[in-house]
Amino acid sequence: MNIKKPPVPVPLLMLVGIVAISFSAIFIKWSSAPASVQGMYRLLFTSLLMLPFARPYSAAAFALKKKDWLLLGFSGFMLALHFLLWMGSLKFTSVASSTMIMALEPVFIMIGSYVLYKEKSTKSAILGLGIAIFGTVFIGWGDIGLSADNIKGDLLSVGGTVAVSVHMMVGQRLVSRMPSYLYSLIVFISASFVFAVYNLAAGIPFFDYPPKEWGIFVLLAIVPTVFGHILFNWLLQYVSATTVSMNILGEPVGASILAFLLLGEKLNGLQWAGGILVMGGLAVYLYAGRKKTTPAAEALQTAS
């Protein structure tokens, strides 16, 4: 059986995705618009950018079963919930704290993948994950406070992490039987619709925002979404959801550095040390997961 390989080395694509999603928290911090509005336009503009290239996938869309459409809608709902909670968390806590908590995503996915897909991890991979998670604690340790706002932000980030973990696991199942581009487009449209309903019900205005905000909405669509989330969805054809989510552990490092340079959020020694641990754990995990990548990708291509 021929094993499908990506046209560009996976580590390079992962690096591009990590840098792209690291800008997400910066753009969100720069915006004063409600999180639900940011999320709605981020996904809507991304969908509009994708639509002109969707025609080759029309036959695949018509071939989808009712169960597939329900799962796509559910995945879109969970993605919208993720953005609503995580973007909202950045209004109350720092970039380092919020992205550190988001790094717990592989823990939820590893557990969920084992329960749903019987996907096992080697001891070395688990060790790498543990080192990286320990590093994320260092990153956010000097920034987590005991105020009501910080606690609220931390809890919102936890909720957003659970939501995106579910979204990723559903995505792993769906991209095994449909093009990843079509999956991303339908999910983004579904999520933007969820946001529109939410904003309408909450009485949040759709258009009353200055030019700066519209520019941020566009940047959110292009940088972290196209070169981040879409890229990660595409990579699900070649590697497992656990591996993809593990690479997102690089986001706290990139986001914390960008927050220091662009927002003036200072990093202490513990946070720098945490960044080194995260990248070290990531390297251990990727090295340990080399032998797993091939059968995992094969399983994704042959799943019913």
UniProtKB/TrEMBL annotation:
Keyword annotations: Membrane, Transmembrane, Transmembrane helix
Listed name of the protein: Permease of the drug/metabolite transporter (DMT) superfamily
Domain EamA residues, every copy: 12-140, 152-285
Family: Belongs to the EamA transporter family.
Cellular component terms per the entry's GO annotation: membrane
Source organism per UniProt: Paenibacillus typhae
Spans through the membrane: 12-33, 39-57, 69-89, 95-117, 124-141, 153-170, 182-202, 214-236, 248-264, 270-288
Any single Pfam family the record assigns to this protein: EamA
Classification via InterPro entries: EamA_dom (IPR000620), EmrE-like (IPR037185)
Subcellular location per the Swiss-Prot or TrEMBL entry: Endomembrane system
Membrane topology, as annotated: Multi-pass membrane protein
Keyword tRNA-binding belongs to the record: no
